[in-house]
Amino acid sequence: MKNLPSVLVFGDQLNRSIGALAAATPKTHRVLFIESAEKIDSQPWHLQRLHFYLSSMRHFADDLRCEGFTVDYVKAQSFRTTLTERLASGVVATEPNSHRSRVLLADLGIETVKSNQFLCHHDDFSGWVDARRSKGYKTFKLEDFYRHQRTRLDVLMDADQPAGGRWNFDDENREPPPRDGHDRWPAPLADDLDDIDRAVLDDIAQLGGSGAAPVGWWATSRAGALRRLTHFIDNLLPMFGPHEDAMLADNWHLAHSLLSPYLNNGLLMPNEVVRAAEQAYRDGRADIASVEGFIRQIIGWREYVWGLYWMWMPDYRDENALAADLDLPPVFLTGETSMKCVGNVVDGINERAWAHHIQRLMILGNLALTSGINPRQFTDWMSRVFVDAAEWVMVPNVVGMALFADGGRMATKPYASGGAYIDKMSDYCKSCRYDRKKRTGDDACPFTTLYWDFLDRHSDTFVRNPRIATQVRSAQKLGDIADVRIRAAEVKDLLRSGRL
Fold first, then answer.
1. Is residue 364 located within the same domain as residue 483?
2. CB distance 459 to 418 below 8 Å
3. What is the pTM of this model?
4. Distance (Å, rounded) from C-alpha 397 to C-alpha 409?
5. Which DSSP helix (H) or strand (E) runs through 72?
6. 229 belongs to a structural domain
7. Both 430 and 329 in a single domain?
8. Overall domain count for the chain
9. 213: how many CB neighbours lie within 10 A of its CB?
10. Is residue 455 part of a domain?
11. Is the dihedral of CA 437, 340, 495, 320 positive or negative?
12. What parts of the chain have a pLDDT lower than 70?
């Protein structure tokens, strides 16, 4: 057994059916995991993020031992050094999910097997882009890719037509938050920590990370992830759609699936999640708007972001087209602020290492965009604190979507807004000391002030953008734009000092 080659498994490839591990048996391969102290010590990780990563690896290693594999679970100082020491006996791996890891394996000459962890391999995504360009298309938008995915995967299709007669039911899934009944959505599942969970917690307790310790929200085994999938399909998918963009101060989960951590580390595979959701629609257990909206997030947005990451890396992560240079303000670390929306979201992250997509884009990203926070610093922070973080997720979503740092290669407009949008889609503004209707004065909503200042500062960039030109021209016509600039400078100073 000692002479068998090893399958190297990364911490985000925790599934028996992925790549090199799918073809391995206890008679043909050992399995190698490496816990790297260099990586663990490299950042002040959120405790729940680090715990989820390590405990999921250790649980999966145990599952493989139960299957009969000889598992070498190595706790090492250096990932590279440990891996190099194993090369003589033979190592094979599935294509890693990060650019750095692929460069490392290539440098060491390690054989890799094509990954099947996503529904559209990035080579196929590049082929789709090239095919569109050859036909004269100058863009490769998400909606076009999503329809391509629906067709090629035969998901929510009735013959050659989309189920329900439409490709997209997004307009039905943008309702503001309900005025009452905030407990209408079933609570997420939670598990007691087991022996492996507690051992990991003991190991990381002295690292000085951020955030609250885990209390069982995030499953660290495939069995736990499958229970959460079933819970979502049976209890939440039927009510997922209408309020998926809403934000509530007293309900952090609403009808969101909370499945992204397991999709991103392999405990769940996208095809099994998508097929379970589609079956709920076919069985009449969930309506088309909710099912289509959920499936679009997985086979559309998630796979689109994955494809763009591999098209544009490694230079993409350092783009900064708007020359944003504000250091990450302390509010993102502490949550201490009079801005009710920002404080609520950051407090939730510190408590659970999670926030839903609109909170990430239109609260956190919006503040970072309009105040001019450095994209690399913001990306690094997001990567440290979110339980579902991965470079391929964070870089396109932050650099391209949230901060427009790529100059519009990914998004057709900057996702900037004032307090009016936040007031429409949340209940935060009702109890906030700032007035979302004001753009100047000590009680003016910082989002409203920064929004108009952002349009003014970048008017040359956006005045010809058809999706935002009207707003830019409105900013240019403001009679109090000079006062807005002064107040915006004050807001940024307050952000820097943690006094906003």
1. yes
2. no
3. 0.96
4. 12
5. strand 71-76
6. yes
7. yes
8. 3
9. 12
10. yes
11. negative
12. 1-2
